[in-house]
Amino acid sequence: MAQTITATTNVRDAAAAFALYAAQDNNYIDFNGMQDEQVLILVKNTNDAVAVETATITISPAPDVEGPWMRDLGTATITIADANSMKTLGPLSSARFKGTNGLVTLNVSVTQSGTASSVEIGVVKLPK
User: Fold this and answer.
1) Which bin fits 25, alpha (ψ -120 to 50), beta or left (φ > 0)?
2) Distance (Å, whole) CA 48 – CA 111
3) What is the pTM of this model?
4) Which of 11, 13, 38, 84 has the smallest number of CB atoms closer than 10 Å to its CB?
5) Taken in order 70, 74, 75, 79, is the CA torsion positive or negative?
6) Quick check: 119 and 3 in contact, CB under 8 A?
7) Count of domains in the chain?
8) What value does the mean pLDDT take over residues 43-53?
9) Cα–Cα separations (whole angstroms), residue 62 to 7, 37, 50, 53, 88
10) Rounded to an integer, what distance in angstroms lies between the CA atom of residue 120 and that of residue 81?
11) What pLDDT score was predicted for residue 67?
């Protein structure tokens, strides 16, 4: 199953409503209208610590045949421990990850008996 996640737009010197989404195996982050270094991805692994259920996040290079010039740098891989551990990802370069459709592909897998849906993803567009 897959889902597309749209960023929450942050407001300088103010607050913005923010949501964490239950991850799917395949997630697409909508980068349309956003520039490099304006996007922060937050990931929280809520799988329990009993079975050491580490989450692995892979961010794939743009799949386009004539896509971004940095795509040859390959996939970015980030691991996140269980028991409510959190990491921020980014900034991500659109020259490496953003497809011509404006989406960035973020895949989630979990070791042992953990589930991808127990990994939460949030995306924030930072103000200029």
Assistant:
1) alpha
2) 12
3) 0.88
4) 13
5) negative
6) no
7) 1
8) 91
9) 19, 17, 36, 28, 21
10) 13
11) 56
pLDDT of residue 68: 59
**H-run or E-run covering 59:** strand 55-59
Length of the chain: 128
**Among residues 34, 45, 38, 8, which one has the least CA distance to residue 103?**
34
Residue 124 has pLDDT above 60, yes or no: yes
Tokens representing 58 are 């892979």
Range of the domain at 83: 2-125
Helices (H), 21-101: 94-97
**What are the C-alpha distances in Å from 35 to residues 39, 54, 93, 108, 125?**
8, 31, 9, 24, 9
Q: Whole-angstrom Cα distance, residue 63 to residue 65?
A: 6
27 secondary structure, DSSP code: E
Amino acid letter, residue 118: S
Specify the 3-state DSSP secondary structure of 33: coil
* Distance, CA of 31 to CA of 39 (rounded, Å): 8
Enumerate the H helices of 1-128 as residue ranges.
94-97
Instruction: Bin 18: left if φ > 0, else alpha if -120 < ψ < 50, else beta.
Output: beta
